[in-house]
Every structure is written in structure tokens, then in C-alpha cells.
Amino acid sequence: MTARILIVEDEARLAGLLADYLAAAGYAADCLGDGDTVVPWVRANAPDLIVLDLMLPGRDGLEICREIRAFSRVPIIMATARAEEIDRLLGLELGADDYICKPYSPREVVARVKAVLRRSLAVPAPTAEGLVLDTAGFRVRSPHGEVELTAVEFHLFAALQREPGRIFSRAQLMDRIYDDQRVVSDRTIDSHVKKLRKKLAEVWPEGELIHSVYGAGYRYEADPAK
Ligand code: CA
């Protein structure tokens, strides 16, 4: 399958040159030059990787990266004209997968694209129960089928599932599922858990995976009887 790369770059010549190099390396490349068009395009076309310029007309790369991360784990390589900017971007924890400094050689970008795709396409190891957490699409697969979760439900499930048997308080779960310091009530977590359980039941009819611990919080266990 040909990986589809989206190039977001307002210098049309540079975008075209990069598209040619990516095509020569066997990728399908699309180009967008206006920041405001990017998020709807990504929602509609689900590219496999995005090379995202920081400075753009319309919405800038920072805003675009944040918006995309709210619904997708698609790999993002952020390009910036200032090397010193990279430290600041790293500090912002935008969720970009790599950073590249302009002016760059198209060859270098192709090498980075290959490396990032290799990392992201690595098949996630199934859990002991045979569940696969697809971080790119916020999906959970099992031999029974596949279910799509919201970003919050996915992070919630991933946090619990990483440490089977461990009891997480609602506050600990909030820390793990929200990047910002927003204040949400315990009931919000409970309602996410309720929806998550309902979805998990479709791919794991064997029994409850997320258990309430009275007065404490939640824990993950596939077979508590064992
Ligand atoms: Ca630019």
C-alpha cells in the first residue's frame, strides 16, 4: 500500500520539489498551502503522515498540530525556519513526531519521513488477552471485531490497560487523559468509563475489563477470578 503524505507548505516551489522527491521514493504526495484548509482535509482524507510548516497563511502549524491531535495520531513532522524555535516547540509538547529545520534538503525530509513511518507502522503488540490498541486510529481490535473510541476513551483505556490490576483514582486518570490542566468532575470520568465499557463489550463479550473499586477508582483486569 502506498503511504500518502500531506505536505503543508506555503512556498509552492518548495512544496512541489518535496512532492517530486516523495513521489520518487514511492509515496503519494498532496500539497496544501493555506493553514485554514488543513484540518478539514486531514479529517476527510486521513493521510499517513503530515509534513507541517510552522508559518503559514491562515492558521499556523502550532494550532493545526493541536487540532489534529484532538482526533488523530497521524505522524506529524514539523518544519520551522528557525533552529532555536525547535526547543520552544519541544517544550510545548504538541505531539509532533519529529522536527526539521528549514532550509532543508528534500532528501533529508524523505529520510525523516521513512524513519517516522517505520516507527508508526510498527504493529502494536497485542495484550495478554489478544486485544490490539491501534493508537493511530484510536481503535481497539480483538478476534471478535473492532471498535472505534474517542480520544479520551482511548487514552483512558490505554492508561488502565498498561498496568493490569493497578487501581487508578479518578484524579490519576484525569491526569493521564487530559493534556491541559482542565478541571473535570469525578462524574465526567465515570461517564467516560460507562461509554468505554459499552464499546469494549462489543469486542470483548467475555466479561468486564474495567472494574470499579468502591471508594477508590478503577482497575483493568481481563479475568479477575484468576
Ligand atoms: Ca511558511
Features:
226 residues; alpha/beta; Rossmann fold; Arc Repressor Mutant, subunit A; 2 domains; 3-stranded antiparallel beta sheet; 8 helices; 10 strands; 41% helix; 19% strand; elongated; binds calcium ion
Q: What is the C-level CATH assignment of the largest domain?
A: Alpha Beta
The name of the CATH architecture of the largest domain is 3-Layer(aba) Sandwich
Judging from the principal axes of the Cα atoms, what is the shape? elongated
The amount of beta strand, in percent, is 15-25%
Total number of beta strands = 10
CATH topology call of the largest domain: Rossmann fold
Work out the radius of gyration.
Answer: 20 Å
Helix percent reads 40-55%
What is the number of independent domains?
2
Profile the largest sheet.
5 strands, parallel
What does this structure look like?
The chain is an alpha/beta fold and 226 residues long. The protein has two domains: 4-120, 3-Layer(aba) Sandwich (Rossmann fold), CATH 3.40.50; 132-220, Winged helix-like DNA-binding domain superfamily/Winged helix DNA-binding domain (Arc Repressor Mutant, subunit A, Orthogonal Bundle). It is 41% helix and 19% strand. The protein has eight helices and ten strands. The strands form three sheets. It has a five-stranded parallel beta sheet, with helices on one face. A three-stranded antiparallel beta sheet has the order 6-7-8, with helices on one face. Helix 6 packs across helix 7 and helix 6 (151-162) packs across helix 8 (186-203). The radius of gyration is 20 Å and the shape is elongated. The model has no long low-confidence stretch (mean pLDDT 88). Calcium ion binds at residues 10, 53, 55-56.
